[in-house]
């Protein structure tokens, strides 16, 4: 067996895989944040809570209604996305004429409410969610063992990310969306219902978070705090990448996941903070972010 | 936050300073607060009042940055918590006197403020909030892993020690008057900063940054200065808290703490002199009485956030200030 810098390959590739998994979630969540920010100009602090809701709703569907993982993958984003739409219509839409920071405060409050309610109901110990049987087991790749489910998470996340990129950059709906990001008044003058577009965009962003939540349910235990710490890392990812570019968010998400995985191999103590350190460096060198445009 | 705080009703009310540099109604309120502070420990449990005092200073320090600098930091727990840890460690492991421990803690917060502040002011608005939050989380992970912080347990049973090596602070009442003095001086200092020429420039930057630039002000220097002042005073509050509760723990550096101080300021009224004190008193009291309800406290805090942002953006003191047509 070969060794790299004294690190056995199983450990190295194992951590890289873990990094890619984390990166999948960073990419999905920062993509949702970027889509929402593009049109609504708010940072959706409730994103972590909505990701957690995704995992919980999948768990509830399975345990209360017997709906399996594959249906959950479809139904949960729709349900949580609808919840997002209601929130946007009832609450967030009242803040568009104010400073954007109020949107941050409002969604922070929503995150507290959602997390608090779930903690009351389910405690903080975490609930197990079985890996669907089609994806149980794993492949021996020679240099490492790849659990099927983990491979699936990476593929699914990549596909959804790229589909989102395609939709926004290459379709007519996406063109409306980009136009409304640039100049909502003018787009409205062309007869496009911008407020509805805004609502749907928020719903879509939330649905992405919920989708990530369902993907995460079998890997991490389903618990009310699962989104809270993750979302702060995703904020750092977003600052590093800049929210100007869809493809940029995806690349930054996966890339930082990998870097985090590598750090865990070579300097485990630093793995929790490496993304924040990179953020500091990016702020020094290129304050607008790697893919960002200076405002 | 510029839109809200530039309320013409408040701006028009004349804020004529008396000879002492403080308008009469503010002087009266400060005197009232001091009187209240002197009586409170005989009516209420002193440790509870000290908690209110520490958080009042924390919220006022935060409000200096948000209400007057127009910068929303979502990571003020970093300064509060790191000062708390350093102070606790200095008092316990190095056996320093409480005032030296507090100074060391405050100094740590100041240095952290310089480092994080100079990076964070490179981004504006929402990004600024995210950057400060991310740095605070970094401090949290550091506190979780560093050898001297005691991990999940924190630093417990910190000695209160002898003030200047002379006065024994172990009795609650003695400590209370020391804390009252520290907090009150802190509040006066913040008041002085707000009403100094420096504070006026800050308001100008908050209201219209490009115009301030065009008038020749080096905006980033002012922003960094107010950031460091705010972080330092937040550190003073955190260090004092460590002596009061004889404890520094992960709660002090976690993002929930950053959220709480935002909530106190929002509820009391950002950009008002006395609002954060009111907000801190309400939130601390609420936490005290609802402690047995567990996660419901989080839900209630979330609701206050939502309602506050949607309907009540001026905060309690902001509304009062409008009624009396006087800046409070």
From TrEMBL, chain A:
Name listed for the protein in its UniProt record? Branched-chain amino acid ABC transporter permease
Cite a single GO BP annotation. amino acid transport
Record keywords: Amino-acid transport, Cell membrane, Membrane, Transmembrane, Transmembrane helix, Transport
- Name the major location: membrane
Family designation: Belongs to the binding-protein-dependent transport system permease family. LivHM subfamily.
One example GO MF annotation: transmembrane transporter activity
Q: Which CDD domains match?
A: TM_PBP1_LivH_like
Record-annotated membrane-spanning stretches: 12-35, 68-87, 99-118, 149-168, 200-220, 232-259, 265-285
User: Where would you find this protein in the cell?
Assistant: Cell membrane
Which InterPro entries did the record assign? ABC_transp_permease, BCAA_transport_permease
Q: How does it sit in the membrane?
A: Multi-pass membrane protein
What GO cellular component term, any one, is given?
plasma membrane
Automatic annotation (TrEMBL), chain B:
Give the membrane topology: Multi-pass membrane protein
Instruction: Identify the Pfam families for this entry.
Output: BPD_transp_2
Its source organism is Pseudaminobacter soli (ex Zhang et al. 2022)
User: This chain belongs to which protein, by name?
Assistant: Branched-chain amino acid ABC transporter permease
* Signal peptide as annotated in the record: none
- Carries keyword Cell membrane? yes
GO MF annotations in UniProt = branched-chain amino acid transmembrane transporter activity
What's the main place this protein lives?
A: membrane
Spell out the GO cellular component terms annotated for this protein, sorted alphabetically and separated by semicolons.
plasma membrane
Which UniProt keywords are listed? Answer: Cell membrane, Membrane, Transmembrane, Transmembrane helix
């Amino acid at each position: 067996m070969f060794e790299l810098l004294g690190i056995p390959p199983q450990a190295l590739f194992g951590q890289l895989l873990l990094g890619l998994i984390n990166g999948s979630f960073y990419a999905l969540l920062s993509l949702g944040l970027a889509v929402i920010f593009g049109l609504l100009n708010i940072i959706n602090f409730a994103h972590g809570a909505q990701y957690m809701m995704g995992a919980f709703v999948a768990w509830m569907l399975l345990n209360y209604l017997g709906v399996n993982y594959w249906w959950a993958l479809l139904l949960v984003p729709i349900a949580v996305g609808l919840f997002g739409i209601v929130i946007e219509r009832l609450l967030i839409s009242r803040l568009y004429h104010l400073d954007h920071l109020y949107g941050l405060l409002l969604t922070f409050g929503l995150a507290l409410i959602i997390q608090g309610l779930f903690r009351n109901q389910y405690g903080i110990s975490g609930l197990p969610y079985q890996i669907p049987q089609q994806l149980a087991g794993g492949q021996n790749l020679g240099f490492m063992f790849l659990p099927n489910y983990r491979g699936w998470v990476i593929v699914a996340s990549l596909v959804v990310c790229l589909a989102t990129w395609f939709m926004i950059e290459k379709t007519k709906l996406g063109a409306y969306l980009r136009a409304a990001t640039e100049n909502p008044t003018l787009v409205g003058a062309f007869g496009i219902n911008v407020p509805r577009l805004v609502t749907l965009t928020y719903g879509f962003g939330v649905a992405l978070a919920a989708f990530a939540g369902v993907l995460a349910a079998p890997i991490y235990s389903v618990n009310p705090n699962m989104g809270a710490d993750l979302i702060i890392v995703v904020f750092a990812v977003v600052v590093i990448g800049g929210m100007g570019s869809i493809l940029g968010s995806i690349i930054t998400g996966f890339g930082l996941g990998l870097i985090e995985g590598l750090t865990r191999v070579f300097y485990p103590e630093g793995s929790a903070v490496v993304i924040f350190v990179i953020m500091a460096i990016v702020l020094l060198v290129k304050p607008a972010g790697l893919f960002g445009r200076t405002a | 936050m510029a839109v809200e705080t530039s309320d013409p009703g408040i701006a028009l009310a004349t804020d004529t300073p008396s000879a002492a540099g403080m308008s009469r109604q503010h002087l009266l309120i400060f005197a009232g607060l001091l009187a209240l502070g002197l009586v409170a420990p005989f009516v209420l449990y002193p440790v509870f009042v000290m908690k209110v005092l520490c958080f009042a200073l924390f919220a006022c320090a935060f409000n200096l940055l948000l209400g007057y600098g127009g910068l929303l930091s979502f990571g003020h727990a970093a300064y509060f918590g790191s000062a708390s840890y350093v102070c606790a460690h200095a008092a316990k492991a190095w056996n320093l006197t409480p005032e030296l421990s507090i100074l060391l803690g405050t100094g740590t917060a100041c240095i952290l403020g310089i480092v994080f502040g100079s990076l964070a002011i490179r981004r504006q608005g929402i990004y600024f909030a995210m950057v400060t939050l991310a740095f605070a989380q970094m401090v949290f992970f550091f506190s979780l892993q560093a050898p001297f912080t005691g991990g999940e347990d924190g630093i417990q049973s910190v000695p209160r020690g002898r003030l200047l090596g002379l006065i024994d602070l172990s009795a609650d009442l003695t400590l209370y008057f020391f804390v009252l003095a520290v907090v009150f001086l802190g509040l006066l200092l913040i008041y002085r900063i707000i009403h100094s020429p420096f504070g006026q420039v800050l308001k100008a930057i908050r209201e219209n940054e490009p115009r301030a630039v065009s008038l020749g002000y080096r905006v980033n220097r002012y922003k960094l200065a107010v950031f460091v002042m705010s972080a330092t005073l937040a550190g003073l509050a955190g260090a004092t808290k460590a002596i009061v509760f004889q404890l520094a723990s992960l709660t002090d550096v976690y993002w929930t703490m950053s959220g709480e101080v935002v909530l106190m300021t929002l509820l009391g009224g950002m950009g008002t002199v006395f609002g954060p004190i009111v907000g801190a008193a309400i939130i601390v009291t609420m936490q005290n009485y609802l402690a047995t309800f567990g996660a419901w406290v989080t839900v209630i805090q979330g609701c206050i956030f939502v309602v506050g942002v949607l309907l009540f953006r001026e905060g309690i003191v902001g509304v009062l200030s409008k009624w009396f047509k006087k800046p409070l």
